[in-house]
Amino acid sequence: xxxxxxxxxxxxxxxxxxxxxxxxxxxxxxxxxxxxxxxxxxxxxxxxxxxxxxxxxxxxxxxxxxxxxxxxxxxxxxxxxxxxxxxxxxxxxxxxxxxxxxxxxxxxxxxxxxxxxxxxxxxxxxxxxxxxxxxxxxxxxxxxxxxxxxxxxxxxxxxxxxxxxxxxxxxxxxxxxxxxxxxxxxxxxxxxxxxxxxxxxxxxxxxxxxxxxxxxxxxxxxxxxxxxxxxxxxxxxxxxxxxxxxxxxxxxxxxxxxxxxxxxxxxxxxxxxxxxxxxxxxxxxxxxxxxxxxxxxxxxxxxxxxxxxxxxxxxxxxxxxxxxxxxxxxxxxxxxxxxxxxxxxxxxxxxxxxxxxxxxxxxxxxxxxxxxxxxxxxxxxxxxxxxxxxxxxxxxxxxxxxxxxxxxxxxxxxxxxxxxxxxxxxxxxxxxxxxxxxxxxxxxxxxxxxxxxxxxxxx
Length: 459
Ligand code: ADP
Ligand code: G6P
Prior knowledge:
Helices cover 45% and strands 19% of the residues. It is α/β, with parallel strands linked by helices and 459 residues long. The protein folds into 2 domains: 239 residues, Glycogen Phosphorylase B (Rossmann fold); 209 residues, Rossmann fold. The strands form 2 sheets. A 10-stranded mixed beta sheet has the order 3-4-2-1-5-6-7-10-9-8, sandwiched between helices. The protein has a 6-stranded parallel beta sheet with strand order 13-12-11-14-15-16, with helices on both faces. The longest helix is centred in the N-terminal third of the chain and has 21 residues. Adenosine-5'-diphosphate binds next to α1 and α13.
């Protein structure tokens, strides 16, 4: 652990814990909130607000045991750094969608300048003994900027997303500069071996690199360490959430509306990486192939809008609106709709209650760094009568959750077959699979992740 040294966590998105948070903040904020509750430390990042001119003002707040230190960005910063380079360039590229990635020098310049400003502001807050832990693709150059300002602290980086294969990454015009910046960190963490392998592959092929023992990586004439740290959830807390009065009330409400049918559930930010279109099509196929399932099952898809200023997100939202309309138009009856498509967030307790009443959890991203929803679905189940997790083989979580029904999310047949198999699965097999999954979700929880990373970083 970090001993008595203070932990400073840095991420673009800082979610101050509030009751009824909107629920579209994603896995990073959920995990860091859990991790920070267990350490003394501060969480530094963007407030989510804009100001006309950058003023470097740091807003300190203390909320439920977590201290946040946030700064505002200008609308131009948001356009070039957040919506631009982070989410129009790196996010699609890191999720293997080079068809959606936009390469624009203005985005690159905005990304560099906001990282520099983050470094200048953060450097004022740092004590020499602090351990600094930076998160995600928005802040890859941060350590290099901090080092340029003379910061000598131990600095680690964790990537919550996939890392793309070499041939995809080299489509990024400044790929060498981006990867070289990672060598200013003392430790790099990845979610799954596939992403770590792609990173080391890049370094050996493109940067004249070498791999040493214990994760040492040399490249660009520099050295760092890279290792696997699969993120987990606060399993005990989520299990408790599933038994809370709010969860019970939600479960009761759901059971009344389920009325003896089986519910399939999906919960995802509305993002093209989540495979929602493919999931809807796979479900539609299942309905057409299994007419006896009509009026006996339904899919509840909860998908709060995310990154709404970006065209590719508006497009996926429009597509899903059309598709859900088509599916319901073709199959609905006066007393039954096959697809309930809901664009809002729910509290964690309400979500836990929803997961607990769903016979099948559909988690079918086309590509995902880890996917925490898969773990939350498992943690919320009733041990005596658990549901079945259908999980994409292209989510980092699939490396660990082998007893789920693993599917190819690009194949409608595969999705339809897995739904059929999950609905037909007898209770003893459901229990056997769930026990194995739950054991892993509990052991590899968020505390384990945080301790593993920080003890290695602290050296
Ligand atoms: P990502 O980080 O890409 O969004 P993850 O599955 O890793 O994907 O994490 C998503 C997190 O956001 C989970 O903790 C999930 O419970 C939460 N979440 C997603 N959708 C909602 C929603 N509609 N309401 C509340 N929480 C949500
Ligand atoms: C994913 C990313 C996070 C991000 C989250 C929500 O989990 O890995 O870095 O915070 O999505 O996206 P947003 O753009 O709203 O922060």
